[in-house]
Amino acid sequence: MTINYKGNAILKINPNAKFSIQHTENEDTITWLDGTTPISKADIEAQFTAVEFDMAMEDLRAKRNKLLADTDYLALSDNTLSTDMATYRQSLRDITNGLTTVADVEAVTFPAKP
Predict the structure, then answer these.
(1) What's the pLDDT at 1?
(2) Which of 93, 87, 95, 75 lies closest to 113, judged by CA?
(3) Are 114 and 88 in contact (CB under 8 A)?
(4) How do the domains of the chain map onto residue ranges?
(5) Residue 48: helix, strand or coil by DSSP?
(6) Which of 4, 61, 75, 106 has its CA 20 to 30 A from that of 92?
């Protein structure tokens, strides 16, 4: 796993953890700083699936937010939003509902813009 996964996994377990990760060719070495209680390698690795899901959701939300931003001007108070556009924008806002796995996120199909 990448250093980013390890760092995110550590922060998922202890959001206040202070540490540095030194990457070498064969392994990563974690140095615990400022009295942070060390977290076992197994506990860190157990968080990788959750970290991967969080990262996939972050990417999905960024794409969704861009699509919403592209149509924000249509939702201003001096415009009348068409029913099709209102439905499209609501579908975008609801796109993350019920997603629980990376496979769910990867299977998302964005609605067509009217």
Answers:
(1) 46
(2) 87
(3) yes
(4) 3-45, 48-106
(5) helix
(6) 4
The per-residue pLDDT for range 7-56, each reduced to its tens digit, is 999 999 999 999 999 988 888 899 999 999 999 999 999 999 999 999 99
Q: Is 47 in contact with 4 (CB distance < 8 Å)? A: no
Q: Does residue 3 have a pLDDT over 60?
A: no
For residue 49, what is the DSSP state? H
C-alpha distances (whole Å) from 18 to each of 9, 39, 44, 54, 76 are 13, 11, 14, 21, 44
- Dihedral through CA 26, CA 43, CA 58, CA 16, nearest 10? -100
The number of beta carbons lying within 10 Å of the beta carbon of residue 38 is 13
What predicted TM-score, i.e. pTM, was given to this entire model? Answer: 0.81
The tens digit of pLDDT for each residue in 46-83 reads 999 999 999 999 999 999 999 999 999 888 877 788 99
Read off the tokens for 72: 């924000």
Q: Which residues contact 59 (CB under 8 A, 6 or more apart)?
A: 105
